[in-house]
Design a protein that fits this description.
This protein has eleven helices and 13 strands. It is 33% helix and 15% strand. A five-stranded mixed β-sheet has the order 3-2-1-4-10. Strands 5-13-12 form a three-stranded mixed β-sheet. Strands 6-7-11 form a three-stranded mixed β-sheet, covered by helices on one side.
Length: 334
Amino acid sequence: MTQEKIDFVVTWVDGSDPVWLERKKACLQEKFGIELDSSKEDGEERYRDFGLFQYWFRSIEKYAPWVNKIFLVTDRQKPDWLDVTHPKIRWVNHEEFIPHEYLPTYSSPAIELNFHRIEDLSENFVYFNDDVYLVNPVEPEDFFVRGLPKHVAIYDAIVPWHPFIKTLYNNMEVLYRHFPNKTALRNSPLKFFNLKYGLMGNLKNMLLLPWKPTGYVELHVANSIRKSTIAKLWDLELETIKKTVESPLRDYSTGINQYLFRYWDIESNQFEPQSLTIGKRIDMNQTEEFAALLKSSRYKMVCINDTLEFNTENQIRLQELFEQAFPVKSDFEL
């Protein structure tokens, strides 16, 4: 069977760019009356660039050479070293796909909720944040099987330990309006009780089966998405989505996010089980764990999450490890 084409989408911003910062400040003040640093949800860790993005492209070239195209989504920015004329790269600015009434936006959920509008993007695509890197070879079947996205369907209790949890709860409110009885699990139990989830994953599903609402375990790695899923949510939940896309900054209180795409595919039973070893999340200070991941074949990708407590020495160490792993410029670089 011929595999349908799969594109990758990656979002990127350089928060230290003075031109971008001044434009952001002016837009927020003039259109919304918002001061640049007035929102706790708009901290600098949302926009920091650590000079590692070229290794993202090197990891893609090395471990996913089969990708159809790479869509780089930015707010009028591009890395100086990137060859945006490369036939596999499509550089997309927000104005090209986000409706005018929702611009400007500095909210990643608002951007993600409009991905289905990107011209020429394949129906099946994989969404990467710029802090998610491949560390071992991947194949199309790691993301989609027979046109269905692969997801980890492990339930998780929603515990309000952080303001972001309200976004997860908002996602589940949408989901339970349409799928109130966990019918996907009842109709396809082997997609929820599966060897790919390990003992603890299967135990969590068993224990949380009676709970409502439950969230889902998040690996914080690349997500397999179908454009038709996003479009369907716009059709069914327009007013809910507008609360997110009309806000220029991330709003935990009323907003939803792209995790809902995955939840919808799971509860509509339009998915295949994904292995927990598809990827792992660490933070920027776990440099020795990253070094071990680069030498291991266990995980296929890693998310190196920004943290306010990051150590500059560890940042330098990360750079060294990336250079050792991916020393050769990719064809995507000038």
